[in-house]
Specification:
Elements (H helix, E strand, L loop, with lengths): L2 H27 L3 H19 L10 H23 L10 H17 L5 H30 L5 H28 L5 H23 L16 H11 L4 H15 L11 H8 L3 H10 L6 H17 L9 H8 L4 H12 L3 H8 L5
Helix pairs in contact: 1-2, 1-7, 2-3, 3-4, 3-5, 3-6, 4-5, 5-6, 6-7, 8-9, 10-11, 12-13
Length: 357
């Protein structure tokens, strides 16, 4: 065995062992859906570390490992959804794309060989394209929700995790598309070095996280005014934060800034003359919100509930009430309202003002 091959084998073994330890730590310490998906992602990466870079025909023992590592890109997509969307719920149908990727990879490994070169190349290319597609979905999810994320630790750490994982997946897939699997020992070793470096960095980051709330199930914040009062009562020494909470409540209750279509965490921080990071931290830690849009929608729904329960506004269409409160269309308003109250706006109005029915 050459020195390069020896280094390759050592890196594969070390990386797989580190990923297994990371998965076990996550399974032991984290009970949320995000933590479980992170553990599954680490296990899938471990199977990739073991199975990747071996030349020659695919052995029977290696085929399931390759299939599992191929399906791991679906786990990456689900992980980013759970990571950046506090309202995400894992459904049974989410197993279907994972099972499809695993099944297609098994067919590619076990049933298509040198005698089926054409179909094997087509299926291999299709798998690579689908892999890039799921990576693109994961990246899109990370980018789309980054600006409204109020959890500073999650903004820094989790986006770095997704960036590292998607970068490796993209590089690995592009190499397969370009080289068609005909990599040399040096290429395979370089791949293993990249995976090892990313794995070590992510393991250190995950095991050294001080913020236990990163993978925790999101707590439900109370009504806006109650949240502000309870925050001030719990921390009477934080005078500056109390003043900021008061000013923020004034903007919400009196100026109703949440009605503005263009309101962002940045524009709100400018109105309050504070750095954006400080306002983000205050809304997260003092008021209990993890997402800026949820914070705005709670105020919008509070106004809509008051309008729907007002007998004098019984003839006002629901869509008018929704638009006045700051929603841009009826669909998002209906979904947000039902998620908050368990009722549609129409049902809520009928219960609040029985004369309407």
């Amino acid at each position: 065995m050459t020195e390069v091959a020896t280094l390759h084998a050592a890196l594969k073994a070390g990386t797989a062992a580190l990923l297994l330890v990371l998965a076990l730590l996550l399974l032991r310490d984290v009970r949320s859906v995000t933590g479980r998906l992170a553990a599954a992602l680490a296990l899938g990466a471990a199977t990739h570390a073991v199975s990747a870079g071996l030349a020659g025909p695919v052995a029977a023992w290696r085929a399931p490992l390759i299939a599992l590592s191929t399906g791991n890109v679906v786990v990456l997509w689900l992980f980013t959804r759970a990571l950046f969307d506090d309202g995400f719920t894992l459904r049974r149908w989410h197993a279907l794309p994972w099972a499809g990727m695993v099944a297609l990879s098994l067919v590619d490994c076990l049933l298509l060989g040198p005698d089926h070169a054409g179909p094997a190349q087509v299926l291999g290319a299709a798998l690579n394209v689908m892999t890039l597609g799921f990576i693109a979905l994961a990246v899109a999810r990370a980018v789309a929700s980054w600006r409204v994320d109020l959890v500073e630790g999650r903004r820094r750490l989790r986006l770095a995790i997704v960036a590292a994982a998607t970068a490796y997946g993209t590089i690995n897939t592009m190499l397969q598309l370009v080289m068609s699997g005909a990599g040399s020992d040096i290429g395979a070793t370089a791949n293993s070095v990249l995976l090892a470096v990313i794995t070590i960095g992510l393991t250190v980051a995950l095991t050294g996280v001080a913020d236990a709330g990163l993978f925790a199930a999101p707590a439900q914040p109370g009504p806006p005014a109650m949240a502000a009062r309870s925050s001030a009562g719990r921390d009477p020494t934080a005078t500056a934060d109390q003043r900021l909470v008061t000013a923020l409540n004034r903007l919400m209750a009196e100026d109703r800034i949440y009605r503005h279509e263009s309101v962002t965490i940045g524009s709100l921080a400018t109105r309050l003359a504070v750095p954006e990071y400080r306002l983000r931290r205050l809304i997260n830690q003092q008021l209990g919100y993890r997402n800026f849009n949820v914070f705005l929608n709670d105020h919008r729904i509070a106004e809509a509930k008051a309008a729907l329960a007002d007998a004098s506004q019984a003839a006002v269409p629901v869509i008018t009430i929704a638009m006045d409160a700051g929603f841009q269309s009826l669909g998002p308003f209906n979904r947000a309202f039902k998620a908050a109250t368990g009722l549609t706006p129409t049902d809520y109005r009928r219960r609040a003002v029985p004369a309407i029915s």
